[in-house]
Amino acid sequence: MLKSPRACFKEIPENLIFHLKRFDYDVMTGMRSKINDAFEFPHEIDMAPYHIDYQKNTSSPCVPDMFELVGVLVHAGNAESGHYYSYVRERPQNSPGPQSWVEFNDMDVTKFDPTGIADQCYGGFTEATAYSHRFQKNWNAYMLFYERMESRSSNEVPLPMTSGVPAKCPVPPEIERRVALSNAQFVRNYCMYDPAHALFARRFLEQLREVNNGTCSENHSIEKEAIWLSLEYLERVLSRSKDCSDFTKMLTSLQKVIGSCALCCNLALDWVKVHEHALRNLLLRCPNPKVRKEFASMIVIALQHLKKHEPYAYGFQDYGDGDPESSEKELRALGVFSHIATRLMELWTTLPSHARGWDDYFSLLTDMASLGVHEKHLLLNRSFLKHGLEILVVEHGRSSRLRSEHPHYAQYCRLMDKGRRFSLVKLTELLSILLEKINLAVDPVSRMQERRFNLRSMPLTRQEDELMQLGSELPRSKVICIFLEKILSSGYCSEATLSIVRMMTLAEPQFGMHDAVQKTIINGINIEPAHLAEPYLQAAIPFCEATPSVDSAQAMIRYIAGEVDTIAEHGGQEHLTFFAQARRIVNLRDNFEPGIFNRIVLRSVPQWAPALLHFREEHVRVSTVDLLKHLVFNHDIQTMDDEEHAQLIETAARDLQVACVRRCNGLVQLQKSLDSKTVEPITSVIKYCISNYYNPEEDLRAIAEADGKFHGCQSFQSHVR
Ligand SMILES: [Zn+2]
User: Fold this and answer.
1) What tens digit of pLDDT does each residue of 610-648 get?
2) How far, in Å, are 45, 115, 318, 401 from residue 128 at the CA level?
């Protein structure tokens, strides 16, 4: 500090503030860093030597100009995050004796012993103790405040003594008013978050019916007061407190009330309908996953109850002619179901800001769609399918118009680029359940309004159709189903994903996406590392179940079998599971002979089995042998009725033996050291095939050749430990 004589002052003010350079910037890494080195500073400093008069003539006598330390601003933390607090010396000092200092740390103001300044403000390392090593402190002085001693002693007016607390002086009325307001707010918050207050609010609900001898009042006015108060309380207070047990208790009490009276149910849903921020706060914004989930489930339960007991309020036009599901009418736009759907659609543009609530939001919509076909129809015509598909295709190059026309999609893409992750799990479920009542094989309608309610099936709109088909119009080599690729590449494949693949493929050839779906699946199979192919392998199953083309099913399985050779260290189990499932597929069309998938998998055995027979994981090797038993070894080909099948098994077994020998020779060429346990399954299979699928009399040459090739591999044996 001021070591260089070049730094000098023309004039030295009453107060000096020194700013210590504690933060640095690395131009190479672009990162800020904090300097925690030790830096000692004096309690008093003479500034006279730094005045220009003295610097001009250093031989002249120097009259001391003394300054005294009166405050330190401390920074604790690193360059990215931290906390500031300060130590301030009381002045004038009321009592004689040692200096009196005070620490200001947010709302806490406490006495501070100035002998602690070195430890708390100089930085550097802590002292090693018997219990801990020394480490570099991340708290240290950031700014120093000095005051000229002479001027203070002349201005000093001691205030009347107050005992034990820091000195008090008159406060300007404006500041006093603000302090009083802030204190009042503090006390109010304190009381609001008091568990006793939560209990008080809950009792309102619990004792609601007692005042009316166990039933609701006729006009439901006090019920409305109590239900709305508790919902308000849930939103404003309980959902924001750290411990959500009071939230759960309150919600349980609320459910008890609304679960026994449809009108009370309607009141609760009305509150959601009237309060435009309620769903956003409780379903999307709230950081507590339990709160989001429980609130969504309350809405679904209330809707179910209302549908059953007050169908008119729920949204059905007329009730009394039996099952509302059989009604030809649509759900009224003035019903509660429709209002909640409207509120949810209003939140669409805010979705990018609330990644944490995606699963809760889409889960609620999925549950609402599961309430019935009318509900699905309403949600379809409120664009939930269309917008859901938009989310899945919006990142793609072909969707630049969506991004430029809708700022929220542009925002979503920016956040994705920055690495923010949005769960697609429940969105996929919603799409799957909405598509359940869609007939993809018929021509789309041009506008939403033209999609009338139909209990059995409804068409897509042109826009929905275009979104689903996006990618199929690309040049032949690049054809892909963009929205499906987005779901599969998210790494998660649920029953909903499989169901979407099945529905699309079943709508062929009319739907026109057959090749695009097939290409999308195949493109994902040869991904590295190979276990990431799992969603694609799973999706291949419903494709084979639903495709109208035997050739396509066969090509899909052959392609996957051909890829197994390249999987190396990963994905053994995933591929094995595929073949185990594939052999049992029953195609839903009538042009597939029974057992055809077993035969396709059997024919491909020589392609996929060798790599899995000596895969690095033991359970994969063992399960591969098991699967081969089912496909090949357990069948006695001499006594089988189906000669064609017997022939197929024999060919597969011989080809398998050849492929396994080739694989072993390959391993020798790689000069890898081989573990006898790892190669045991593949060598046993070779031996088993030689002794069981060659006729000793007719196939002498073949046996000699096969055996010779295998045993001739002296080097193979020598590689085996
Ligand atoms: Zn009631």
Assistant:
1) 999 989 899 999 999 999 999 999 988 888 888 899 999
2) 31, 19, 81, 63
User: What is the 229 CA–ligand 1 centroid distance (Å)?
Assistant: 15
565 C-alpha to ligand 1 centroid (Å): 67
CA of 221 relative to ligand 1 center, distance in Å: 10
Closest alpha carbon to 244 in 290, 194, 278: 290
* Ligand 1 ion: residues within 5 Å (CB): 216, 223, 261, 263-264
Structure tokens at 473: 């119009």
3-class SS shares of the chain: helix, strand, coil, % to 5:
55, 10, 35
**Residues 481/411, Cβ–Cβ less than 8 Å:** no
Global pTM value: 0.76
- Cβ burial of 617 (10 Å; 0-12, 13-18, 19+) is middle
Distance, CA 262 to ligand 1 centroid (Å)?
6
pLDDT of 29: 75
What is the distance between the alpha carbons of residues 582 and 538, in angstroms, rounded to a whole number?
10
b/e map of 388-426 (b: 16 or more CB within 10 Å)? bbbbbbbbbeebeebbeebebbbbbbeeeeeeeebbbbb
Ligand 1 centroid, distance to 208 Cα (angstroms):
10
Within its chain, how far is the Cα of 647 from the centroid? 52
Q: How far is the CA of 258 from the centre of ligand 1 (A)?
A: 7
CA distance linking residue 146 with residue 43, whole number of Å: 9
Centre of ligand 1 from the C-alpha of residue 370, in Å:
26
How far apart, in whole angstroms, are the C-alpha atoms of residue 405 and residue 454? 33
Determine the distance separating the centroid of ligand 1 and the alpha carbon of 261, expressed in angstroms: 5
Question: How far, in Å, is the centroid of ligand 1 from the Cα of 227?
Answer: 10
pLDDT tens, residue by residue, 81-115: 899 999 999 887 766 778 889 999 998 899 999 99
According to the model, what pLDDT value does residue 664 have?
84
Between the CA of 278 and the centroid of ligand 1 the distance, in Å, is: 22
Q: Tell how far CA 363 is from the center of its chain.
A: 14
Residue with tokens 């099952």: 323
- Ligand 1 geometric centre to CA of 264 (Å): 4
